[in-house]
Specification:
The protein has 219 residues and is an alpha/beta fold. The protein has a domain of 147 residues: Aldolase class I (TIM Barrel, Alpha-Beta Barrel). Strands 3-1-2-4-5-6-7-8-9 form a 9-stranded mixed sheet. Helix 1 packs parallel to helix 2. It is globular and about 50 Å long. The N terminus is likely disordered.
């Protein structure tokens, strides 16, 4: 009987897109960052025909596939190298935002170590349905469903407002350093912004987060 040698395949991460821009939301708004958008989400498959029956029905992001800018299948080392290549040469304060979709479906300890080895501060934006691994430097949770909400601590909680079921009062006592309301974008953005402002003024624990990248017209 002949035995074939089997080479262990190194894990590949499915990435929709990677680009250098300014963080547009929350605590780090205005900070230069490399955005790494992981493909896939557990709250919606990304198909418009299925939006109404999804857990999250108001997502404004394309996270399907790997066909975006710098998208593809990467090993941890390859992905860290690609992200580093987009940072201005010889400049400090390296900052990467791992987003999605839901990045914690893929982001693991191996990837975190590879990014830290390249001297990146790692931020993650998650819906809170997957427990975050250790080593993340800045964890943003943007909840969309209480039935799937398990990550009840982090650096900032950013609640899209208003939502039918999820209200700020549900989250205000959780273990987060910062609490933000972000007006829901769409046909009623102006009204939702006013409602968010009014709520923050009445409840000063909450701060307003605007999607400044949309206001500025940048990615």
């Amino acid at each position: 009987m002949r035995w074939k040698s089997i080479k262990t395949m190194e894990k590949k991460y499915s990435i929709k897109e990677i680009f250098y821009t300014l963080q547009g939301e929350g605590f780090h708004s205005g900070r230069p960052a490399v955005f790494c958008r992981f493909a896939g989400c557990n709250f919606w498959n990304g198909k418009e025909t299925d939006r109404k029956k999804a857990i999250c029905t108001f997502c404004d992001t394309d996270f399907i596939g790997t066909d975006g800018q710098n998208g593809g299948q990467y090993t941890a080392a390859e992905l860290a190298d690609k992200i580093l290549s987009l940072w201005p040469a010889d400049q400090p304060n390296r900052f990467v935002v791992c987003t999605g979709g839901e990045p914690l479906l893929q982001l693991d300890q191996n990837m975190i170590e590879a990014l830290h080895d390249s001297n990146f501060e790692i931020a993650v934006e998650s819906n809170g349905s997957v427990e975050a691994p250790e080593g993340i430097d800045w964890l943003t949770i943007s909840p969309k469903s209480m039935d799937h909400f398990i990550q009840n601590s982090g650096d900032e909680l950013k609640l899209v407002y208003p939502q039918d079921v999820l209200t700020p009062s549900v989250f205000g006592d959780l273990n987060f350093k910062h609490f933000y309301l972000q007006p829901m974008d769409g046909d009623h953005t102006a009204l939702n912004t006013k409602l968010s402002v009014d709520y923050c003024l009445k409840h000063p624990k909450w701060k307003l987060s605007l999607q400044t990248h949309k206001i500025l017209g940048i990615d």
